[in-house]
């Protein structure tokens, strides 16, 4: 790794207020980043991370209008005075939406686009395109049409496009938000290599700290536009309680240790956490059989219900012109109250499956029955009272002029009385923390709040079956926990939920059953504990279990059924030292301080 | 979800027409547009349309052209309806040829309507041939080469991306309406759908514009070109011929087929009713088909 040199980025009391907003997006931010640093930026939605990152490129305030104050210097120049397009030579910017990189007809042309813009002579282009594509692992993709690439490949292409211009700073704003686990791993692998081997200074924001915790040399936490923490990842990300106070999600591994009573800073990676757990007193007694048995109770209680509300029989669907069906020979049933997680790489057929369930697509072969109705025999509109769905982009399903009307729209279509409608709206607004926004126009809300409104709008219909497509993409800690709570509440009221998601930690918290899809087929299906416990099978589909599961498996590869735990809460419950005779700390079973006496292992790393 | 490609978007291929320089094709498009704008005579205008269709067939994009014209034809037909409904050209006496309920069809309005259709079809078909056989990057390269100012090129590029984007968004939003138990057909469904469609599309275009600028689009440097779109001798000759055709077309159009006035089209009443009725039906059909397609997708 290159030695730290003079700062390439320096902000002094930098602030920014969006035009028309009364609250600053950034305030008093003072920050120096040296050449070769890898800076992770975290913050809840609206904390200012995007504003900070795009200010480095001059997008704020040149293209996003507002008032900037204080000083900002990037590579010796004020980005406010350098046209954004010219800044591309110095700073490469990568956004959260992979499709934003698609402007040309081939991958090579896509990289060339930036070079052409910057007036790079034709004679240099081939070598630069080659080098850029090689460094992001896309050599051999030159002639491919960008629109046919996966999300992960597109994000790496976006990095390649930025790199070709030869910037010394790479800025990535939630680059993995829309990626499957394999795509996320490959993306962060590329970023790490660029930083370690090529000395590129990296500034990256992400809601998920897992990848960054491992690679970053430094972490900044923003809270309401201000720097709330700044330091090495081991210190900042190793303090889960402090992170949560700022609305930032800790790594699940760190959360497990914290809940077991280890004092901050705790290690943040799976291997370090497992090592730390293995040497604590009482470690040999884990997992606790009683606690493990309790884990499966909820799942089996729900699965025992016999009222099947969704039945897919050998369902096949292909889009015109595609070389294979998007969904092939899928059979699946769901009972009331079940929460079924659909996992699989991008393009494995998860979204198509959801559209087959809500009737927007009709199976070409096989049968889909929802609440006793064959979807092929009923118009989507009459199925709507029985099956509802939340799309990935909430803006596409908001139609009313106020949030309150939006929540009332479904119940009104169902013909409920105004009194009942009002009651449901109030109830949902409270549960989703939307009360202050009821009079606002849904499309004037931020993307995260729109997501809540869209979820509320379908929950208001109390459907028997609810399909959610990536409900936690780009959501912060608060939002993800509200969504998780509503999912569990809906299941408790007897709704069967189908959740297509890349967020394994979220599914570990809410799902009772998992369906693993690969290339349109169901390759595995079973209780959430069994599927997340089968690491080799998940790996074949490009997936991995939640971090909490990885920690538990590292501590104890085997355990009584339904081993392993699939969420932080479960992992904590089964790993907490219990009171078998002969151990130093035998009582009480719930003593969270049980770990405090663990020999120091040299602190966190 | 995955809609068929927009009929107006580039269809990859390697035909002789695909291989022609965008500059050459622009020269001929200019000729077709200039000619279509100076004349009102349906016969030469229909010749232009025929030539464009022949070109499309020779480049193997006939099917695309067919789909594009199926969308544009009915749109052009609306002109007849409008012309007949509001005959503004009758300064002196107009020749009444038929009556359709409360509307009187005059020979002048009919002639103007038909001429406008022919003109629109000629211009549209020529433009479609260019769009379908030219990579957008090459087209913008050519525009830049011809010193079209950068903002205009950016405007063109975002507009071209906006149309298929709006189509896709509309399909998803209408789906979402149905999934919410709302009506998703007929004009009443469209009204509440339009706002989310435009909001989503414009947000996206805005973000795309920022993403493109962050990649140097519009930088102060003199733009270079990856695709060395050098004009070969054949392209050079064809481009010159295109420019000559543009000049020749304007002169010939003005001299031979007059510019301003259109001779009244005196036809039997049944023919007038058939033309106007057919155009009306085509126009209504277009709206119905667009809704059905969006709802089906």
Descriptive report:
The complex is a heterodimer of chains A (605) and B (297). In chain A, 37% of the residues lie in helices and 20% in strands. Chain A is of the alpha/beta class. Mean pLDDT of chain A is 88; it is low at 579-605. In chain A, helix 12 (270-278) packs parallel to helix 23. In chain A, strand 13 (365-370) and strand 14 (373-374) form a beta hairpin. By secondary structure, chain B is mainly alpha-helical. Chain B has a domain at 16-147 and 231-296. Helices cover 70% and strands 3% of the residues of chain B. The longest helix of chain B has 30 residues, at 150-179. The model of chain B has no long low-confidence stretch (mean pLDDT 78). The chains are: A alpha/beta (605), B mainly alpha (297). The interface between A and B is large, with 72 and 51 residues.
Looking at this structure, what is the CATH superfamily of the largest domain in chain A?
Answer: P-loop containing nucleotide triphosphate hydrolases
**What is the overall number of helices of chain B?**
10
Major sheet characteristics of chain B:
2 strands, antiparallel
Based on the structure given, which CATH architecture of the largest domain in chain A is correct?
3-Layer(aba) Sandwich
Total strands of chain A: 19
Radius of gyration of chain B: 22 Å
* Low-pLDDT regions of chain A: 579-605
The proportion of strand residues of chain A reads 15-25%
Major beta sheet of chain A, specifics?
Answer: 6 strands, mixed
**Structure classification of chain A:** alpha/beta
Q: In CATH terms, what is the fold-level topology of the largest domain in chain A?
A: Rossmann fold
Strand line-up in the sheet with most strands of chain A: 5-6-7-3-8-9
Major beta sheet, strand line-up of chain B: 1-2
Considering residues with a beta carbon less than 8 A from a beta carbon on another chain, report the largest interface and each chain's count: A-B, 72 and 51 residues
The unreliable regions of chain B are none
Assembly type: heterodimer
Under the CATH scheme, which class of the largest domain in chain A? Alpha Beta
**What structural category characterises the helix and strand content of chain B?**
mainly alpha
Number of helices of chain A: 24
